[in-house]
Design brief:
This protein has 389 residues and is α/β, with parallel strands linked by helices. The chain has a single domain (4-14, 23-379), classed as TIM Barrel (Alpha-Beta Barrel). The chain is built from 15 helices and nine strands. The strands form three sheets. The protein has a three-stranded parallel β-sheet with strand order 8-1-9, covered by helices on one side. Strand 2, helix 5 (118-126) and strand 3 (135-139) form a beta-alpha-beta unit.
Amino acid sequence: MPSSANTAQASNALPSAQLLPPLELDRSLITDPALLPIAAKLAAGQRLSYDDGLTLMTSRDLLGLGALAHPARLAKNGQRAYYVINRHVNYSNVCVNKCAFCAFWRDEDQEGAYLLGPEEAAALAAEHPGLDLAELHVVGSCHPGLGLDYYCDLLRAVGRARPEAGLKAFTAVEIDHFARQEGITTGQVLDRLIEAGLAAMPGGGAEIFSSRVRARLCAKKAPAAQWLSISGQAHERGIPTNATMLYGHIETPSERVEHLLALRDQQDISGGFSAFIPLAFHPDNTELNQMNRTSGLDDLRVIAASRLLLDNFPHIKAYWVMLGPKLAQVALNFGADDLDGTIVEERITHAAAAPTAKGLTEDELRHMIQAAGFTPVRRDCFYNSLEAN
């Protein structure tokens, strides 16, 4: 298999931003009359509006939402459900942003703070040599004391340890931080990282784009416009990225819809988002620990609404770490077509006391997909199939 850097160049990596075709819908499953005009739009192949999104994001008609979202999922990906054999490497938890919703961050001198050297991170990546990794997912924090040379050395080291795996590394928030630390542009940071092996980027740090929420929960983090701009800069360079939304804290349904439409607008412009991942907030060990976790209804509603509003996104992910394997399996009938992957050792959500396993085996992922009635497709980090012919 080619190296991660060469893979990005060979495939050009960027997904096509095809819109939804007219959908064949079973309206007998819809009990919320407010969903019927949306069904008519989808049947006519029309793009949904903000008002449509707000209706979706507030409807309690779960089966009706599924009746709308599942045909959209089939139109995009048929019966295929994707997964990747991947490994997460979190290089540090020392972070200057100190977001109120995050249980992962530590001050530099705080108990539990850590920083991996490039070779230490490479040693982690090299663990489980029998695992045929297709993706290394490298994210961490906004560390106050590291320069860009560290991050380039980190990519080179993990790339040497796993030359067969695509390097999906650093969120747009991290890119913004690196640029401010170095006093250079975010584009220059991306160019340096690409030279070091960067092939794709994860979608973290988007949180909720609402300035109201960001001022309250993550005031030091790169603002929404900068997150979107950096994503677009990556797309211009042939680097595909993911996009996320953290929901279930203090955001409103309106702010969720505005977030999704901002992503849709950026995808119309740059076309490089591979997947959208709704992230259900876990409050334990955060400043918001008095809040309840999201309900199953809300999780499936967000996934369904995302599939319908993000008509130009190829994939919607049901992230089993946050949803739990069982609900992620159900989500395959509510618009999702990807379960993420093996992960091996997830740290960020588990710092917030996530009850899920830290990793799953390939057999477990394939069983989840097959038991739900779908066809499992092992993929690389560009959504190329790795299934044997």
